Amino acid sequence: MNQMDKIEKKRQKEQYVVEEMIKLYCRKNHSGEGWQAGQMCPSCRELAEYAKLRSEKCPFMKEKTFCANCKVHCYKPEMREKIRQVMRFSGPRMLLYHPLLAIWHLVCSRKEKNKK
Predict the structure, then answer these.
(1) Which DSSP symbol is given to 31?
(2) How far apart are CA 59 and CA 64, in angstroms?
(3) How many Å separate Cα 69 from the centre of its chain?
(4) Residues 104 and 35: beta-carbon distance below 8 Å
(5) Which of 32, 34, 36, 17 is nearest to 90 (CA)?
(6) Structure confidence at residue 30 (pLDDT)
(7) Does the structure show a pLDDT above 70 at 23?
(8) From CA 52, how far away is CA 66, in angstroms rounded?
(9) Taking Cα atoms as reference points, which of 112, 17, 2 lies closest to residue 60?
(10) Exposure string (b/e) for 62-98, b if CB count within 10 Å is 16 or more?
């Protein structure tokens, strides 16, 4: 697997994790706003699409582990606050709903802190 394939795989995994966190947030907070099994409300769908777009355009994907560890924050302030709310809510709950992803995230975060 070459370097570009590794970066693309990393990007796809990040996008998957973020989308799962947004889905969890939406399901638990917006159930009365048209949420159906596997679907997100329009606001959360917009946030997921925005996050995916930001990830696709990220020039730092090779070096960074997660957006929180990035030196440059490319989200618009409004979207940055929304994703921050999602992360605060969904982060601790990921252990219950997606334990393998949560453990993977913790391991990667620890590695990043040990590098610095």
Answers:
(1) T
(2) 10
(3) 12
(4) no
(5) 17
(6) 84
(7) yes
(8) 13
(9) 112
(10) eebbebeeeeeeebeeeeeebbeebbeebeeebeeeb
Alpha-carbon distance values, 69 to 40, 94, 95 (Å)? 27, 19, 21
* Helix (H), strand (E) at residue 50: helix 42-56
Q: What is the per-residue pLDDT across 28-62, written as a single tens digit (0 to 9) for each?
A: 898 765 556 668 889 999 999 999 999 888 877 77
Whole-angstrom distance, CA of residue 72 vs CA of residue 30: 30
CA distance 26 to 23: 5
Structural tokens at position 3: 């370097």
Helices 3-29, 42-56: crossing angle, 10 deg rounding: 160
Torsion of CA 7, 13, 19, 25, to 10 degrees: -130
